[in-house]
Specification:
This protein is α/β, with parallel strands linked by helices and 278 residues long. It is built from 9 helices and 10 strands.
């Protein structure tokens, strides 16, 4: 406790009668307990079996290891995740998850493992499953295997920012290239004309005058559980962004991206880093 805060408490106690002093002390201890309580954060790794863009990508070997292993290692390295679970519909992915020491407390229903399933439905299913078991978490952290280079440090920076800034959610982001800034982007109308994506009376002429713009990189989504359950969204109204290092900004969606990342990880420098991380 800071010296000035302690002195203030002493002064206020001196002005109280005995009953008042006791009540004041109880109030202080209660407040300190709430502030210092370890907040619980559920780490959720979604990995369905029916991926189409890259066949069976979640358990396909990337530089000698299942893709799922990279996210599992980052999650286990986090100091702020209370629990890490795998959400899947696929028995083979369950087996791989078990070998990676991932907890698989339930099988995801088949209807929540199709191409059109919104990710929020997968998150809600997990939270409600735990709630039925009497387990509530203060926040949920979504970690998709398609961002294999995200680090434990980035996970923890996002979780810490959720409480530090008292927001609904925190997402990892990367800067939008200048030429793709929303102020310089156009949409095509049904008539074939171009319409600015941002309505403004005067166009911004110079890149130096453009406001910074960011895009979600898919690495980390962390949100307060009560907001997720009540609003059925992972973002809410108050969203804070944490900048991901450029070296971690990978979001696998195509075979070409897979091959490029594998070549990178198999290079001598990155191969040495992988060995050190094991």
């Amino acid at each position: 406790m800071e010296g000035s805060a302690a002195l203030d408490i002493v002064r206020r106690l001196a002005a109280c009668d005995c009953v008042g002093a006791v009540r004041f002390l109880l109030s202080c201890f209660l407040t300190m307990g709430i502030q210092n309580r370890q907040r619980t954060v559920l780490g959720l790794i979604p990995a369905r079996g029916g991926s189409k863009g890259i066949l069976r990508k979640n358990i396909r070997k990337m530089a000698g290891r299942p893709l799922l292993a990279y996210t599992a290692n980052a999650a286990f390295g986090s100091a702020l995740l209370s629990r890490v679970v795998l959400s899947t519909d696929d028995p083979e992915i369950v087996a791989i998850g078990d070998s990676l020491r991932l907890e698989v407390p339930f099988l995801r229903p088949a209807e929540l493992a199709v191409d059109t399933t919104p990710m929020i439905d997968v998150v809600l299913h997990a939270l409600e499953w735990f709630r039925v078991k009497g387990l509530d978490y203060d926040a949920v952290c979504l970690l998709q295997p398609t961002s294999p280079l995200r680090s434990a440090a980035t996970i923890d920076r996002c979780i810490a920012a959720l409480w530090e800034h008292d927001v609904d959610s925190v997402i990892s982001v990367r800067p939008v290239p200048t030429e793709h800034n929303p102020h310089w982007v156009y949409f095509k109308t049904p008539e074939g004309l171009l319409k600015p994506s941002v309505s403004e009376s005067v166009e911004i002429p110079c890149r130096q005058q453009l406001p910074p713009a960011y895009h979600a990189d898919g690495s980390v989504f962390v949100a307060k559980t009560n907001m997720v359950l009540s609003q059925h969204t992972l973002k809410g109204k108050r969203i804070f962004g944490v900048l991901s290092p450029e070296s971690e900004a990978v979001d696998l969606d195509t075979e070409e991206q897979w091959q490029a990342l594998e070549r990178r990880l198999m290079s001598p420098a990155d191969a040495k880093n992988l060995q050190c991380a094991d």
